[in-house]
């Protein structure tokens, strides 16, 4: 299946934003970025260095390619659908019917009568690894080299230009590799220089794996693709002149192309490897090649040198645009690590999270949850682009709400609601993946209101109002109809069945979760404001729900996860502490600040931080900052359990994809909030940072809601 076609040339849509509002504040941006270049002397089999453009990315090992580790080459259009199990029909899937406030509602939950179709729907479609591109390296005695055969290894990812430089020696012979990605096309360029090319001991290969998602769900697998079933797919090489070729790869109903262009040498299939092709270097000591991946018709790969030149042009423009934060004049010795995380997170989110659809949690590195994107996580992946004034990167994917609107309306209508109900775990088709949590999670629902407000702040004009009008009104219609008036209390309540943000309480008994109540207030309030901006009357049904929503649940003077929860501080003090997100990440609709202050301290003292997720730490930091505890805010961003590796990849865990990019986006949003402030914040510089030990130089950032 295909989400888009690849443009032949970079388009204006691939540009970066102009200089930050108000001009630059004097930060030496090249020095800021360059001091955090990634340097390695050995490979990490779970952590690639990447080049990419937001829609397409390539992960490299210590050789600058994928010689020893089968890291992924991925594009946001790269989806594959597994064949249905024999005899299965999608139409037979029924899900489950659950009582919902006195009426039967069908949910996309596991169908006990059709477990195979359920598994297929959850796993398909799945993202695929387009190809593995690496070096054939032979030692002097003729065997295939391994990483330990390489000496003098040094690799440097130049963040300022987006070019990866790798060098090493094999049997005393020097090898230099330059790897770059085109900013506007799904093209990779490889430039290799070594005497081993002339002697025939070094060549470049491209290999194609089989894609499969159907099977056991794995969250932290570092590689994508199956290499041991060559008969299950086909590749066909077609020469297009002496120095060009196209390789068509077909798997089931999926077909895509890799167009090659090189300087000198020959290409041919490798004996014994039906889907691997070798590119030699002719009589010289160089191999220069470009690989262009396209989802439909074969394309024409660009000149390898042109790809590197485009990268060297695009990335400095990226770094000079938008926001910047320089912490180098701080006295607190932790400044360098925090600044490193900030710089690398900007690079990695631009590489992995700026496509035409929301990214999956592990971006374009590998697959988690079969590569599907989660609409509740979209905020954590993308909202930071707005505060860092890189809106063009955000706008690439905001069209997802328009694209999924019809399917979201159909889901709401089927369940007896008005408006549009946004899915949780999905793909470009909008089909909800079966699961109890995926069927009952709702905190993704007000996200369009948040994104619309960010958009309107940047462009307060009629076109912005019209752009979001239908989406916001359909979203609010569902939210108002989803809330049910309780006849005993007269309040409007949320759930059950409902899966709260923390996903650790029973859906059958979860009612009025705190975060969702506050976010519902924010969403309906924003939708009404949108009507007023458009010159329309307020919607009386929305106001009825907004005014009548249940209050945020409190027990013993503290906020709790949801109404009626028992033993929360001993049994449910793990997973996402989203009850504090209502004031920090959100602006605090319905929040009593004193109660929230007490709750913040209870979370700090009792929460099991070894059982939380990456975006929880930025959420905690934003809460602490808004409550005036700047020291704690910084501590959360540098907590030992909030981990980033040497490449800047945020680490997951046993049940979390690694890398886990909502942590990167959350870090950037929190830093922008702490450095540029939020609505109603103190009028001090960098109000979310401590005044003692920290000097924050920031420019080009926008204030948070």
Topology:
Layout (H helix, E strand, L loop, with lengths): L28 H6 L3 E3 L8 E4 L3 E5 L12 E3 L3 E2 L15 E5 L2 E5 L7 H9 L2 E2 L4 E6 L12 E9 L4 E8 L2 E9 L5 E7 L1 H4 L3 E6 L26 E6 L4 E8 L2 E9 L4 E4 L2 E7 L6 E9 L9 H17 L3 E3 L8 H18 L20 E2 L3 H5 L1 H4 L3 H8 L1 H15 L10 E2 L9 H5 L6 H12 L3 H21 L1 E2 L6 E2 L20 H20 L6 H9 L5 E2 L2 E2 L8 H4 L21 H14 L9 H11 L3 H8 L24 H15 L20 E3 L6
Antiparallel strand pairs: 1-10, 2-3, 3-4, 5-8, 6-7, 9-14, 10-11, 11-12, 12-13, 13-20, 14-19, 15-16, 16-17, 17-20, 18-19, 21-28, 22-23, 24-25, 26-27
Helix pairs in contact: 5-19, 11-12, 11-13, 12-13, 12-14, 17-18, 17-19
Task: Write structural notes for this entry.
It is a single chain. The chain is of the alpha+beta class and about 700 residues long. About 30% of the residues lie in helices and about 20% in strands. The chain is built from 19 helices and 28 strands. The strands form 9 sheets. It has a 9-stranded antiparallel sheet. A hairpin with a 2-residue loop joins strand 6 and strand 7. Helix 5 crosses helix 19 (about 660-675) and helix 11 (about 445-460) packs antiparallel against helix 12. The longest helix has 21 residues, at about 460-480. Residues about 1-15 and about 20-25 have low confidence and may be disordered.
């Amino acid at each position: 299946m295909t989400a888009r076609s690849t443009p032949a040339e970079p388009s204006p849509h691939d540009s970066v934003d102009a200089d930050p509002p108000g001009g630059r504040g004097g930060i030496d941006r090249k020095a800021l970025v360059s001091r955090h270049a990634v340097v390695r002397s050995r490979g990490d089999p779970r952590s690639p260095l990447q080049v990419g453009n937001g829609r397409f990315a390539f992960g490299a090992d210590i050789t600058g390619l994928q010689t020893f580790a089968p890291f992924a080459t991925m594009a946001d259009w790269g989806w594959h659908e597994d064949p249905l199990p024999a005899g299965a029909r999608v139409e037979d899937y029924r899900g489950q019917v659950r009582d919902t406030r006195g009426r039967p509602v069908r949910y996309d939950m596991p169908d006990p009568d059709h477990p195979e179709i359920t598994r297929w729907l959850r796993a398909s479609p799945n993202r695929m690894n387009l190809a593995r591109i690496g070096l054939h390296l032979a030692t002097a005695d003729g065997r295939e080299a391994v990483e330990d055969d390489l000496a003098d290894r040094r690799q440097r990812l130049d963040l300022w230009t987006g070019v990866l430089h790798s060098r090493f020696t094999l049997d005393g012979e020097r090898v230099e590799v330059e790897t770059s990605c085109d900013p506007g096309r799904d093209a990779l360029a490889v430039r290799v220089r070594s005497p081993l090319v002339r002697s025939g001991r070094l060549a470049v290969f491209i290999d194609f794996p089989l894609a499969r998602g159907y099977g056991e769900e794995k969250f932290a697998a570092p590689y994508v693709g199956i290499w041991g079933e060559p008969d299950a797919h086909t590749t066909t090489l077609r020469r297009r002149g002496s120095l060009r070729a196209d390789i068509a790869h077909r798997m089931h109903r999926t077909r895509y192309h890799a167009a090659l262009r090189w300087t000198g040498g020959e290409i041919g299939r490798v004996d014994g490897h039906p889907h691997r092709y070798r590119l030699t270097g002719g009589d010289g000591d160089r191999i220069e090649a470009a690989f262009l991946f396209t989802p439909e018709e074969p394309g024409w790969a660009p000149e390898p040198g042109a790809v590197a030149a485009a990268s060297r042009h695009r990335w400095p423009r990226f770094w000079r645009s938008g926001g910047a934060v320089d912490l180098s004049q701080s006295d607190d010795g932790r400044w360098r690590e925090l600044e490193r995380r900030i710089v690398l997170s900007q690079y990695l989110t631009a590489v992995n999270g700026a496509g035409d659809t929301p990214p999956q949690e592990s971006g374009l590195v590998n697959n988690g949850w079969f590569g599907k994107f989660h609409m509740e996580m979209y905020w954590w992946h993308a909202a930071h682009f707005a505060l860092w004034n890189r809106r063009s990167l955000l706008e690439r994917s905001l069209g997802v709400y328009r694209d999924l609107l019809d399917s979201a309306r159909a889901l709401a209508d089927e369940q007896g609601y008005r408006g549009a109900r946004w899915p949780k775990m999905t793909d470009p088709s909008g089909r909800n993946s079966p699961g109890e949590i995926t069927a009952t999670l709702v905190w993704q629902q007000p996200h369009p209101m948040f994104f619309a407000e960010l958009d309107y702040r940047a462009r307060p004009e009629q076109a912005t109002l019209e752009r979001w009008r239908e989406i916001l009104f359909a979203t609010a219609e569902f939210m108002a109809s989803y809330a049910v008036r309780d006849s005993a209390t007269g309040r409007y309540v949320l759930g059950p069945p409902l899966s709260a943000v923390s996903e650790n309480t029973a859906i059958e008994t979860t009612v009025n979760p705190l975060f969702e109540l506050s976010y519902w207030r924010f969403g309906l309030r924003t939708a009404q404001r949108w009507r007023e901006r458009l010159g329309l009357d307020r919607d009386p049904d929305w106001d009825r729900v907004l005014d009548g929503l249940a209050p945020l649940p409190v027990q013993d003077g503290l906020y709790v996860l949801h109404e009626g929860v028992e033993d929360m501080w001993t049994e449910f003090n793990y997973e996402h502490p989203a009850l504090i997100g209502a004031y920090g990440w959100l602006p605090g609709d319905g929040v009593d600040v004193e109660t929230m202050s007490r709750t913040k301290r209870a979370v700090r003292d009792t929460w099991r931080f070894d059982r939380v997720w990456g975006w929880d730490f930025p959420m905690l930091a934003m809460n602490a900052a808004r409550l005036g505890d700047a020291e704690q805010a910084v501590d959360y961003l540098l907590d030992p359990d909030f981990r980033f590796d040497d490449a800047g990849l945020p680490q997951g865990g046993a049940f979390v994809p690694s890398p886990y990019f909502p942590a990167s986006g959350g870090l950037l949003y929190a830093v922008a909030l702490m450095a540029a402030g939020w609505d109603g914040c103190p009028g001090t510089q960098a109000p979310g940072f401590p005044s003692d030990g920290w000097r924050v130089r920031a420019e080009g950032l926008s204030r948070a809601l």
